[in-house]
Write a structure and sequence with these properties.
Length: 367
């Protein structure tokens, strides 16, 4: 087991980089992706490598979740919330993303209003239970959803559940018993933060891509095991870390910016080797284009909205995404402007610190 392998599954190409730990050599190659079943493109590349039995570990970057969100190709989601709050995802927030863009349209949530359901329960802002969950109502709702046969995934978002998640866990348990084939995302596990709209929309996004990510990652894991390829297989997280395939299946929103995050980290490493401290990192693929920037040798992390304002992450590497490559010039312009602003701010801060030091020394001399 002498090779460490990196794989990036994109919408058009699947890229491979193998690192030989014995002689510290790198080998890179690529082949066309197979969107209907990404593992076919992966296996084609591994066959071209020819030394699959010598791979010790695999780090996987994927845009499966990214592309599903950008293209709107995911599951039919059922939304379960506290009585009186079913319209939170549709009302959204009152602010505009771009104040002077008259063509801007607020993105629609990944649910239909007919698939938004209310249950009787209530937790107060202090975390105290005001009204107990009506379990019989939830059981009847689960049976109705199964009988209906349209809904493929469930998003559960209850009021103030980030303080007291017991009702959400109970709903998840009931659906596991009554509808075992329907995956359930609860807001306490996805984004346990206040502000109802972002918590709701992020949980909906997690449920929206869960069946897609589940199907593809399990297929990848199964084929790799059948062919005895790789020992430890992990997926790149949106924050640049990594997680197991099983963890990614349970919380797919954590890999929503998996592929772009890997590109930013690679650009940062190359820039360090070249002695470049400030740069813009354009990453143009066949489906999406992602642009980020690095200031003073550091990538930027964010927990603000992503995916067209539809979801927020706990922490991810900052990258602006667009569905079409034609938007690359506009993204580059924004990224360059942002980079210049940050660099100028750092310079002003340093000058202020120097000036403060001089004033302090002058005062010391006076005294």
């Amino acid at each position: 087991m002498q090779y460490r392998l990196g794989i990036d599954i994109g919408g058009t190409f699947t890229d491979f980089v193998a690192f030989d730990e014995s002689n510290r050599e790198l080998k890179a190659w690529k082949n066309l992706s197979t969107p209907h079943d990404p593992i076919e493109g992966v296996m084609t590349g591994l066959r071209a490598f020819g030394a699959a039995n010598e791979i010790g570990s695999i780090r996987l970057g994927t845009t499966v979740a990214t592309n599903a969100l950008l293209e709107g190709k995911g599951a039919v989601v059922g939304y379960v919330t506290t009585r009186g709050f079913r319209d939170v995802p549709f009302i959204g927030r009152g602010n505009r993303r771009n104040h002077y863009d008259l063509s801007w349209v607020k993105p629609k949530p990944f649910i239909k209003r007919r698939n938004a359901f209310e249950v009787n329960e209530r937790v107060g802002p202090s975390g105290a239970v005001i009204e107990e969950l009506d379990e019989e109502q939830v059981q009847a709702l689960a049976d109705t959803i199964v009988a209906k046969g349209e809904i493929e995934s469930i998003a559960v978002v209850l009021m103030h559940s980030y303080l007291a998640p017991e009702h959400e866990f109970l709903i998840k348990k009931i659906f596991a018993e009554r509808a075992p084939n329907i995956p359930v995302s609860i807001s306490y596990e996805v984004l346990p933060k206040w502000k109802e709209h972002f918590r709701a929309s992020t949980t909906i996004c997690d449920a929206f891509i869960k069946p897609v990510v589940n199907r593809q990652l399990r297929s990848i894991s199964k084929r790799l095991k059948e062919d005895n390829v790789g020992g430890n297989v992990v997926v790149m997280r949106s924050n640049g870390g990594e997680m197991t395939l099983e963890a990614a299946v349970d919380s797919p929103i954590q890999i929503a910016v998996s592929g772009p995050a890997g590109g930013v980290i690679a650009a940062k490493q190359i820039a360090q080797l070249l002695g470049i401290a400030n740069l813009v990192t354009p990453d143009m693929g066949g489906t999406s284009t992602d642009v980020s920037n690095i200031v003073d040798g550091r990538e930027k992390f964010t927990s603000k909205s992503s995916g067209g304002g539809r979801f927020r992450s706990r922490c991810s590497i900052f990258a602006r995404s667009a569905q079409a490559a034609a938007q690359l010039p506009a993204l580059m312009q924004v990224a360059c402007w942002s980079l210049g602003r940050k660099v100028r701010a750092r310079i002003r801060a340093r000058h202020a610190m120097v000036s403060a030091g001089r004033c302090r020394r002058s005062l010391m001399r006076m005294w």
